[in-house]
């Protein structure tokens, strides 16, 4: 099973109109796929500005429309030009109390709008230190993933919460073991073809200096990059490392 490598940038609550110039500094690649998820305010302008980079949202409401002040529906994201949406990011879980059940309903809403969902899962520092990582991930996968999951509609991003924005990264052996575990869990629930086809991203302090090493880990199909995706120089280096891994 060939899984196309994916370099996904999550701009989080960063980015103004002027920052769209960063797109111009990104390398063009042929093997790897590049996605940027800017704030919702920039999705339409970013999508109009580029055809080589896919554009995604960072969250959506589970409902199709309605009285939900301040929220954005999956259909609105698609209407603005998004093809993907990040769901269940740990910052949403922490800042907004999002549960696995809510994330599951958001994934279904994304699919109904023909968006590909990027499900984020990951253990906290306390859970990591207590040796609970795999148990936590198993629960998040089971609780968040609807039936009907397929390689066409889902990408899973493993993001240890303690590695996000901290400069800390698990050992390559830890990343390998977690990704192998996730692959096995997906295969056990959805069957070999589906489980083997779903792309797994690593996220958490991915930088130009560690990208190649991370991309060499089996079952790592790319990265979900936060801080280093904001500047074309850094994200460009990560994209090039992924392109090289795809060619290897
Ligand atoms: O969605 C991206 C992750 O939260 C990683 O963020 P980071 O690369 O700034 O650590």
From TrEMBL:
Enzyme class: isomerase
GO biological process, one term: glycerol catabolic process
A Pfam family that the UniProt record links to this protein: TIM
EC number: 5.3.1.1
Keywords: Cytoplasm, Gluconeogenesis, Glycolysis, Isomerase
Subunit details: Homodimer.
Designated name of the protein: Triosephosphate isomerase
UniProt organism field: Rhodophyticola porphyridii
GN (gene name): tpiA
């Amino acid at each position: 099973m060939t899984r196309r490598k994916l370099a996904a940038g999550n701009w989080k609550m960063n980015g103004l109109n002027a920052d769209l110039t960063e797109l111009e500094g990104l390398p063009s690649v042929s093997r790897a796929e590049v996605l940027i998820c800017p704030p919702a305010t920039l999705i339409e302008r970013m999508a109009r500005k580029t055809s080589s980079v896919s554009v995604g949202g960072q969250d959506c409401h589970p409902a199709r429309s309605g009285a939900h002040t301040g929220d954005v529906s999956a259909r609105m994201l698609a209407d603005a030009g998004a093809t993907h949406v990040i769901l269940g990011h740990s910052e949403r879980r922490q800042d907004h109390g999002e549960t696995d059940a809510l994330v599951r309903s958001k994934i279904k809403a994304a699919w109904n709008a023909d968006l590909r969902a990027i499900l984020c899962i990951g253990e906290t520092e306390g859970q990591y230190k207590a040796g609970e990582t795999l148990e936590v991930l198993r629960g998040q996968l089971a609780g968040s993933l609807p039936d009907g999951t397929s390689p066409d509609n889902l990408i899973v991003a493993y993001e240890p919460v303690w590695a996000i924005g901290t400069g800390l990264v698990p050992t390559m052996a830890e990343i390998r073991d977690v990704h192998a575990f996730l692959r096995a869990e997906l295969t056990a629930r959805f069957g070999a073809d589906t489980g083997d086809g779903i792309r797994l991203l690593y996220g958490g302090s991915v930088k130009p200096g560690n990208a190649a090493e991370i991309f060499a880990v089996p079952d790592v199909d790319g990265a979900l990059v936060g801080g280093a995706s904001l500047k074309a120089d850094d994200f460009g280096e990560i994209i090039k490392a992924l392109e090289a891994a795809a060619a290897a």
